[in-house]
Amino acid sequence: MAGTFISFEGPDGAGKTSVIKAVNEALGNQLGAEQVLLTREPGGDRIAEQIRDVLFDDQNTNMDSRTEALLFAAARRQHVVQDIKPALHEGKVVLSDRYVDSSVAYQGGGRHLGIDDIWELNEFAIHDLLPALTIYLDVPSELGLQRINEHRADQVNRLDREKLAFHRRVRQAFLTLAKRHPHRIVVIDASAELTTVIQEVESLIHSRFPTLLPK
Ligand code: TYD
């Protein structure tokens, strides 16, 4: 496939959204905005967005963990087919705010469903489409939760509200994944200042894909 697929991962409060926004702007300036697709999971086309609404409906307090895992994977499948693959075929850079590793970390680790089982479930959904690079923004869980409470208390979702132990399991699962996929997943220390994190991410993209971003 001609394009370049980059995913961004991180526990809640890692500053992921701000980092992606900056990368999207830098790539857009370099390549032209139409050459970059910024997208997020769960989400994408109409069907994936409808699944997102089910997942984050505050009234769905009795959602079974396996149902949750299946819905995230279903939304991902739809996103891959309707948004990511077509953009890659057109030669675009696709920046995805979360992808398969989030399911492995949140459902596999956080919800205790198991890293391997959730990986397998998602292999069915993604059908070999892995990012060329996954940037994992790492922060200690306490700091992540503190940032959420300070900055986005009004936008807290069903998963954000989970307890500290849940978020610690999520982080551990992300770190396990990074060890298992050392070339694809690069860990960036996101406890540093935002500008430092952005610089580090942009220089990583430059070193992996020199034609996309100049130094
Ligand atoms: P969202 O508000 O979209 O954004 P952010 O990435 O900034 O947190 O929240 C997505 C939530 O869904 C987040 O808590 C992680 C969770 N999630 C999963 O549990 N599994 C998944 O497969 C994905 C993609 C997300």
Describe the structure.
It is built from eight helices and five strands; from the N terminus they run βαβααβααβααβα. With 215 residues, the protein is of the alpha/beta class. Helix 1 crosses helix 8, helix 2 runs antiparallel to helix 3 and helix 4 runs antiparallel to helix 5. The longest helix has 25 residues. The two termini are 25 Å apart. The mean pLDDT is 95. It binds thymidine-5'-diphosphate.
SSE order in H/E notation? EHEHHEHHEHHEH
User: What percent strand?
Assistant: 5-15%
- Poorly predicted regions: none
In spatial order, strands of the major sheet run 2-3-1-4-5
Shape: globular
**Which structural category do the helix and sheet elements fall into?**
alpha/beta
Mean pLDDT comes to: 95
Termini separation: 25 Å
What is the helix fraction of residues, given as a range?
A: 40-55%
Major β-sheet annotation: 5 strands, parallel
Can you count the helices? 8
Cofactors and ligands = thymidine-5'-diphosphate
Write down the Rg: 16 Å
Secondary structure tally: strands = 5
